[in-house]
Amino acid sequence: MAFKQVILVRQDLKLPKGKLAAQVAHASVDAVLKSDKKIVNAWMQEGMAKIVLKVKDEKELLHYFQHAKDTGITASLITDAGRTVIAPGTKTCVGIGPDAEEKIDRITGKLPLL
Quick one: what percent of the chain has pLDDT higher than 90? Predict the structure, then answer.
């Protein structure tokens, strides 16, 4: 079984590259910390595949976040503290998984790559 993690990023925020990278890292780390250790270990042994995908806006971000949770996949919603370029409380990214590739693809398989 192949495992992966997906990070969803809002396109409407038009984040600078450095800010975007930091938000994606937050989503990845937070989702891993919330995940089942056996799945994390298997994912790590496979090379920790991470795919960054884009969503249009907050509504779409929250849709996929809820869908992952409803399906039983670990998901982490990142809300910015607002110390730099965006307002406090802005929802920027969602980390989904790591989990079985097929399970994640059923939810996010049609989203475009960043």
Answer: 96
The CATH number linked to 30 is 3.40.1490.10
Q: Note the pLDDT tens digit of each residue in 14-50.
A: 999 999 999 999 999 999 999 999 999 999 999 999 9
Domain count, the chain: 1
- Residue 35 domain boundaries: 3-108
User: Residue 113: inside a domain, yes or no?
Assistant: no
Q: Please check whether residue 114 lies inside any domain of the structure.
A: no
Buried b (16+ CB within 10 A) or exposed e, 43-80: beeeeeebbbbebeeeebbeebbeebeeeebbbbbbeb
- What whole-number distance in Å separates Cα of residue 55 and Cα of residue 64? 9
Rounded CA gap, 112 and 8, in Å? 10
